[in-house]
Amino acid sequence: MEDQFKGKVVLVTGGTGSIGSKLVEHILTFNPRQVRVLSRDEGRQYELLERLRYPENLRLLIGDIRERERLEYAFKGVDIILHAAAMKQVPLCEYNPFEAVKTNILGSQNVIDAAIKNNVKKVIAISTDKAVYPANVMGASKLMMEKLFINANWTGGKSTTKFSCVRFGNVTWARGSVLPTWKQQIEKEGSINVTNPDMTRFMMSIDQAVRLVLKAVDLIQIGEVFVLKMPSVAIGDLATMFIKKYHPNSAVKINNTGGRAGDRMHEELVDDNDRSGFIFENNEMYIFVPNFLELTGFMYELPSYLGFAQISELGIVSSDKHIDPEKINNII
Length: 332
Fold this sequence. Notes:
It contains 13 helices and 15 strands. Strands 3-2-1-4-5-6-10-14-13-15 form a ten-stranded mixed beta sheet, sandwiched between helices.
Protein backbone atom coordinates (compact mmCIF):
# COMPACT_ATOMS: atom_id res chain seq x y z
CA MET A 1 0.00 0.00 0.00
CA GLU A 2 2.85 2.41 0.67
CA ASP A 3 3.78 2.19 -3.02
CA GLN A 4 0.28 3.30 -3.97
CA PHE A 5 0.09 6.29 -1.63
CA LYS A 6 3.64 7.45 -0.91
CA GLY A 7 4.17 10.99 -2.18
CA LYS A 8 0.60 11.17 -3.57
CA VAL A 9 -2.23 13.63 -2.94
CA VAL A 10 -5.30 11.70 -1.78
CA LEU A 11 -8.80 13.15 -1.26
CA VAL A 12 -11.56 11.42 0.71
CA THR A 13 -15.12 12.66 0.24
CA GLY A 14 -17.15 12.08 3.39
CA GLY A 15 -13.80 11.84 5.13
CA THR A 16 -15.21 12.47 8.62
CA GLY A 17 -17.61 9.50 8.57
CA SER A 18 -16.93 6.12 10.17
CA ILE A 19 -15.31 4.65 7.05
CA GLY A 20 -13.94 7.89 5.63
CA SER A 21 -12.10 8.87 8.81
CA LYS A 22 -10.57 5.39 9.14
CA LEU A 23 -9.41 5.60 5.53
CA VAL A 24 -7.77 8.92 6.29
CA GLU A 25 -6.07 7.47 9.36
CA HIS A 26 -4.69 4.48 7.41
CA ILE A 27 -3.54 6.49 4.40
CA LEU A 28 -1.57 8.88 6.60
CA THR A 29 0.62 5.93 7.64
CA PHE A 30 1.70 5.42 4.00
CA ASN A 31 3.58 8.74 3.75
CA PRO A 32 1.33 10.58 1.27
CA ARG A 33 2.30 14.09 0.25
CA GLN A 34 -1.14 15.29 1.33
CA VAL A 35 -4.51 13.93 2.43
CA ARG A 36 -7.55 16.12 1.86
CA VAL A 37 -10.84 15.58 3.66
CA LEU A 38 -13.96 16.96 2.00
CA SER A 39 -17.09 16.97 4.15
CA ARG A 40 -19.91 19.24 5.32
CA ASP A 41 -19.53 19.03 9.11
CA GLU A 42 -16.94 21.38 10.58
CA GLY A 43 -17.46 19.90 14.06
CA ARG A 44 -16.48 16.42 12.93
CA GLN A 45 -13.56 17.86 10.98
CA TYR A 46 -12.28 19.48 14.15
CA GLU A 47 -12.74 16.21 16.09
CA LEU A 48 -10.79 14.33 13.40
CA LEU A 49 -8.00 16.88 13.53
CA GLU A 50 -7.80 16.54 17.30
CA ARG A 51 -7.85 12.74 17.19
CA LEU A 52 -5.08 12.59 14.60
CA ARG A 53 -3.02 15.24 16.45
CA TYR A 54 -2.73 17.80 13.66
CA PRO A 55 -0.64 16.02 11.00
CA GLU A 56 1.13 18.52 8.75
CA ASN A 57 -0.02 16.83 5.54
CA LEU A 58 -3.75 16.78 6.39
CA ARG A 59 -6.03 19.39 4.83
CA LEU A 60 -9.69 19.86 5.84
CA LEU A 61 -12.08 21.22 3.21
CA ILE A 62 -15.65 22.19 4.00
CA GLY A 63 -17.81 21.31 1.03
CA ASP A 64 -20.63 19.26 -0.43
CA ILE A 65 -20.42 16.88 -3.40
CA ARG A 66 -23.62 18.51 -4.67
CA GLU A 67 -21.55 21.63 -5.44
CA ARG A 68 -19.68 21.11 -8.72
CA GLU A 69 -17.52 24.23 -8.48
CA ARG A 70 -16.32 23.30 -4.99
CA LEU A 71 -15.26 19.86 -6.20
CA GLU A 72 -13.43 21.22 -9.22
CA TYR A 73 -11.38 23.43 -6.92
CA ALA A 74 -10.83 20.78 -4.24
CA PHE A 75 -9.64 18.16 -6.76
CA LYS A 76 -6.81 20.27 -8.19
CA GLY A 77 -3.55 18.31 -8.06
CA VAL A 78 -5.19 15.19 -6.59
CA ASP A 79 -3.88 11.73 -7.58
CA ILE A 80 -6.43 9.43 -5.87
CA ILE A 81 -10.03 10.01 -4.77
CA LEU A 82 -11.93 7.76 -2.37
CA HIS A 83 -15.60 8.64 -2.66
CA ALA A 84 -17.30 7.83 0.65
CA ALA A 85 -19.81 10.71 0.87
CA ALA A 86 -23.39 9.46 0.64
CA MET A 87 -26.87 9.35 2.06
CA LYS A 88 -26.99 5.80 3.42
CA GLN A 89 -29.82 5.52 5.96
CA VAL A 90 -32.55 3.47 4.28
CA PRO A 91 -35.64 5.02 6.00
CA LEU A 92 -34.36 8.59 5.57
CA CYS A 93 -33.76 7.99 1.88
CA GLU A 94 -37.30 6.58 1.58
CA TYR A 95 -38.78 9.71 3.14
CA ASN A 96 -36.45 12.09 1.25
CA PRO A 97 -35.98 10.40 -2.12
CA PHE A 98 -34.86 13.38 -4.17
CA GLU A 99 -32.33 14.36 -1.51
CA ALA A 100 -30.85 10.87 -1.97
CA VAL A 101 -30.81 11.46 -5.74
CA LYS A 102 -29.04 14.80 -5.32
CA THR A 103 -26.30 13.29 -3.13
CA ASN A 104 -25.86 9.70 -4.30
CA ILE A 105 -26.47 10.22 -8.04
CA LEU A 106 -25.99 13.86 -9.01
CA GLY A 107 -23.25 14.36 -6.41
CA SER A 108 -21.44 11.27 -7.67
CA GLN A 109 -21.61 12.57 -11.25
CA ASN A 110 -20.07 15.80 -9.98
CA VAL A 111 -17.23 13.75 -8.49
CA ILE A 112 -16.71 12.01 -11.85
CA ASP A 113 -16.73 15.24 -13.87
CA ALA A 114 -14.39 17.07 -11.50
CA ALA A 115 -12.00 14.10 -11.40
CA ILE A 116 -11.82 13.94 -15.21
CA LYS A 117 -11.35 17.71 -15.47
CA ASN A 118 -8.43 17.57 -13.02
CA ASN A 119 -6.81 14.41 -14.49
CA VAL A 120 -7.12 12.44 -11.25
CA LYS A 121 -5.50 9.03 -11.75
CA LYS A 122 -7.77 6.72 -9.69
CA VAL A 123 -11.26 7.12 -8.22
CA ILE A 124 -12.87 4.46 -6.00
CA ALA A 125 -16.55 4.82 -5.03
CA ILE A 126 -18.12 3.04 -2.06
CA SER A 127 -21.34 1.20 -2.86
CA THR A 128 -23.52 -1.29 -0.96
CA ASP A 129 -25.14 -4.70 -1.34
CA LYS A 130 -28.45 -2.82 -1.36
CA ALA A 131 -27.58 -1.80 -4.93
CA VAL A 132 -28.06 -5.44 -5.99
CA TYR A 133 -31.68 -5.87 -7.17
CA PRO A 134 -32.57 -2.71 -5.20
CA ALA A 135 -35.80 -2.61 -3.23
CA ASN A 136 -35.45 0.88 -1.76
CA VAL A 137 -34.40 4.41 -2.69
CA MET A 138 -30.98 4.10 -1.14
CA GLY A 139 -30.19 0.91 -3.06
CA ALA A 140 -31.54 2.31 -6.34
CA SER A 141 -29.49 5.49 -5.98
CA LYS A 142 -26.36 3.47 -5.21
CA LEU A 143 -26.99 1.25 -8.23
CA MET A 144 -27.10 4.37 -10.39
CA MET A 145 -23.88 5.54 -8.77
CA GLU A 146 -22.23 2.22 -9.69
CA LYS A 147 -23.44 2.55 -13.29
CA LEU A 148 -22.13 6.10 -13.54
CA PHE A 149 -18.72 5.18 -12.16
CA ILE A 150 -18.22 2.04 -14.24
CA ASN A 151 -19.32 3.69 -17.47
CA ALA A 152 -17.19 6.78 -16.79
CA ASN A 153 -14.23 4.68 -17.93
CA TRP A 154 -15.66 4.87 -21.49
CA THR A 155 -17.73 8.05 -21.49
CA GLY A 156 -14.95 10.36 -20.30
CA GLY A 157 -13.50 11.02 -23.75
CA LYS A 158 -9.72 10.91 -23.79
CA SER A 159 -9.50 10.95 -20.01
CA THR A 160 -6.97 8.60 -18.39
CA THR A 161 -8.84 8.59 -15.06
CA LYS A 162 -9.72 5.09 -13.83
CA PHE A 163 -13.02 4.54 -12.01
CA SER A 164 -14.09 1.51 -9.94
CA CYS A 165 -16.45 0.64 -7.08
CA VAL A 166 -16.33 -1.41 -3.91
CA ARG A 167 -19.54 -2.97 -2.63
CA PHE A 168 -20.03 -3.13 1.15
CA GLY A 169 -22.37 -5.14 3.34
CA ASN A 170 -23.51 -3.80 6.73
CA VAL A 171 -20.49 -2.35 8.51
CA THR A 172 -20.50 -3.15 12.23
CA TRP A 173 -19.93 -0.22 14.58
CA ALA A 174 -20.19 2.31 11.75
CA ARG A 175 -22.11 5.44 12.71
CA GLY A 176 -25.86 4.77 12.49
CA SER A 177 -25.46 1.00 12.26
CA VAL A 178 -27.29 -1.45 14.48
CA LEU A 179 -24.61 -2.28 17.10
CA PRO A 180 -23.95 1.26 18.37
CA THR A 181 -27.71 1.83 18.26
CA TRP A 182 -28.29 -1.24 20.43
CA LYS A 183 -25.53 -0.14 22.79
CA GLN A 184 -27.29 3.19 23.34
CA GLN A 185 -30.67 1.52 23.77
CA ILE A 186 -29.34 -0.81 26.47
CA GLU A 187 -27.70 2.10 28.32
CA LYS A 188 -30.90 4.16 28.24
CA GLU A 189 -33.70 1.60 28.36
CA GLY A 190 -32.21 -1.80 29.24
CA SER A 191 -33.65 -3.30 26.06
CA ILE A 192 -32.98 -3.37 22.31
CA ASN A 193 -35.25 -3.06 19.29
CA VAL A 194 -35.13 -5.67 16.51
CA THR A 195 -37.12 -4.98 13.34
CA ASN A 196 -37.50 -8.62 12.23
CA PRO A 197 -35.48 -11.43 13.84
CA ASP A 198 -35.61 -13.53 10.65
CA MET A 199 -34.15 -10.79 8.47
CA THR A 200 -30.57 -11.57 7.32
CA ARG A 201 -27.69 -9.24 6.52
CA PHE A 202 -24.11 -9.51 5.27
CA MET A 203 -21.71 -8.13 7.87
CA MET A 204 -18.18 -6.74 7.76
CA SER A 205 -15.99 -4.85 10.23
CA ILE A 206 -14.76 -1.29 9.72
CA ASP A 207 -11.21 -2.63 9.27
CA GLN A 208 -12.40 -5.08 6.60
CA ALA A 209 -14.20 -2.24 4.82
CA VAL A 210 -11.09 -0.07 4.88
CA ARG A 211 -8.86 -2.90 3.62
CA LEU A 212 -11.27 -3.56 0.74
CA VAL A 213 -11.08 0.07 -0.40
CA LEU A 214 -7.28 0.17 -0.11
CA LYS A 215 -7.00 -3.14 -1.98
CA ALA A 216 -9.17 -1.70 -4.76
CA VAL A 217 -6.72 1.21 -5.15
CA ASP A 218 -3.96 -1.36 -5.64
CA LEU A 219 -5.91 -3.61 -8.06
CA ILE A 220 -7.94 -1.13 -10.14
CA GLN A 221 -7.49 -1.45 -13.89
CA ILE A 222 -10.78 -0.64 -15.61
CA GLY A 223 -14.28 -0.37 -14.19
CA GLU A 224 -14.24 -3.21 -11.67
CA VAL A 225 -16.62 -3.84 -8.80
CA PHE A 226 -14.76 -5.29 -5.80
CA VAL A 227 -16.83 -7.34 -3.33
CA LEU A 228 -15.67 -8.94 -0.09
CA LYS A 229 -16.80 -12.50 0.61
CA MET A 230 -18.78 -11.81 3.76
CA PRO A 231 -20.62 -14.00 6.24
CA SER A 232 -24.22 -13.16 7.04
CA VAL A 233 -26.44 -13.45 10.08
CA ALA A 234 -30.10 -13.37 11.06
CA ILE A 235 -30.82 -10.13 12.95
CA GLY A 236 -32.37 -12.03 15.86
CA ASP A 237 -29.22 -14.16 16.22
CA LEU A 238 -27.06 -11.05 15.97
CA ALA A 239 -29.01 -9.48 18.85
CA THR A 240 -28.54 -12.60 20.98
CA MET A 241 -24.80 -12.71 20.25
CA PHE A 242 -24.42 -9.01 21.00
CA ILE A 243 -26.13 -9.31 24.39
CA LYS A 244 -24.16 -12.44 25.29
CA LYS A 245 -20.86 -10.76 24.44
CA TYR A 246 -21.38 -7.35 26.05
CA HIS A 247 -24.09 -7.86 28.69
CA PRO A 248 -23.91 -11.55 29.74
CA ASN A 249 -25.05 -10.94 33.31
CA SER A 250 -27.97 -8.63 32.64
CA ALA A 251 -31.54 -9.28 31.56
CA VAL A 252 -31.71 -7.33 28.32
CA LYS A 253 -35.10 -7.55 26.64
CA ILE A 254 -35.42 -7.84 22.84
CA ASN A 255 -38.39 -5.91 21.39
CA ASN A 256 -39.65 -6.92 17.94
CA THR A 257 -40.68 -3.64 16.32
CA GLY A 258 -41.40 -4.70 12.71
CA GLY A 259 -39.69 -3.72 9.47
CA ARG A 260 -38.85 -0.12 8.62
CA ALA A 261 -39.68 1.69 5.38
CA GLY A 262 -37.51 0.26 2.61
CA ASP A 263 -36.32 -2.82 4.52
CA ARG A 264 -36.25 -6.23 2.84
CA MET A 265 -35.75 -9.72 4.25
CA HIS A 266 -32.45 -10.70 2.60
CA GLU A 267 -29.61 -9.07 0.69
CA GLU A 268 -27.57 -10.26 -2.29
CA LEU A 269 -23.99 -9.50 -3.32
CA VAL A 270 -24.12 -10.29 -7.03
CA ASP A 271 -26.53 -9.35 -9.82
CA ASP A 272 -27.05 -10.48 -13.41
CA ASN A 273 -24.90 -7.64 -14.72
CA ASP A 274 -21.96 -8.87 -12.62
CA ARG A 275 -22.44 -12.38 -14.01
CA SER A 276 -22.53 -11.14 -17.61
CA GLY A 277 -18.97 -9.82 -17.40
CA PHE A 278 -15.77 -11.49 -16.25
CA ILE A 279 -15.47 -12.84 -12.72
CA PHE A 280 -12.29 -13.28 -10.69
CA GLU A 281 -11.98 -14.52 -7.15
CA ASN A 282 -9.59 -15.49 -4.39
CA ASN A 283 -10.35 -16.67 -0.85
CA GLU A 284 -11.15 -13.14 0.27
CA MET A 285 -13.08 -11.37 -2.46
CA TYR A 286 -14.67 -11.24 -5.92
CA ILE A 287 -13.71 -8.90 -8.75
CA PHE A 288 -16.40 -8.25 -11.37
CA VAL A 289 -15.05 -6.83 -14.62
CA PRO A 290 -17.57 -5.41 -17.12
CA ASN A 291 -17.87 -6.93 -20.57
CA PHE A 292 -15.84 -4.45 -22.61
CA LEU A 293 -17.17 -5.64 -25.98
CA GLU A 294 -20.82 -5.15 -25.01
CA LEU A 295 -20.15 -1.71 -23.50
CA THR A 296 -17.89 -0.19 -26.15
CA GLY A 297 -18.01 -2.30 -29.28
CA PHE A 298 -14.26 -2.84 -28.98
CA MET A 299 -12.39 -5.76 -27.48
CA TYR A 300 -9.84 -4.92 -24.81
CA GLU A 301 -7.18 -7.19 -23.44
CA LEU A 302 -8.71 -8.92 -20.42
CA PRO A 303 -6.92 -7.76 -17.26
CA SER A 304 -5.35 -10.18 -14.82
CA TYR A 305 -5.04 -9.88 -11.06
CA LEU A 306 -2.20 -11.43 -9.10
CA GLY A 307 -3.49 -14.18 -6.80
CA PHE A 308 -6.96 -14.27 -8.42
CA ALA A 309 -8.42 -17.00 -10.62
CA GLN A 310 -11.03 -16.40 -13.30
CA ILE A 311 -14.25 -18.38 -12.91
CA SER A 312 -16.85 -19.02 -15.59
CA GLU A 313 -20.03 -18.59 -13.55
CA LEU A 314 -21.35 -17.67 -10.14
CA GLY A 315 -24.72 -18.51 -8.64
CA ILE A 316 -26.87 -16.60 -6.18
CA VAL A 317 -24.93 -15.10 -3.28
CA SER A 318 -27.68 -14.34 -0.77
CA SER A 319 -27.48 -13.45 2.91
CA ASP A 320 -29.92 -16.24 3.80
CA LYS A 321 -27.44 -18.84 2.49
CA HIS A 322 -24.13 -17.64 3.96
CA ILE A 323 -24.89 -17.55 7.67
CA ASP A 324 -21.80 -18.09 9.83
CA PRO A 325 -22.37 -17.21 13.53
CA GLU A 326 -18.73 -17.86 14.50
CA LYS A 327 -17.36 -15.38 11.96
CA ILE A 328 -20.02 -12.84 12.87
CA ASN A 329 -19.10 -13.15 16.55
CA ASN A 330 -15.49 -12.32 15.65
CA ILE A 331 -16.64 -9.28 13.67
CA ILE A 332 -18.73 -8.07 16.62
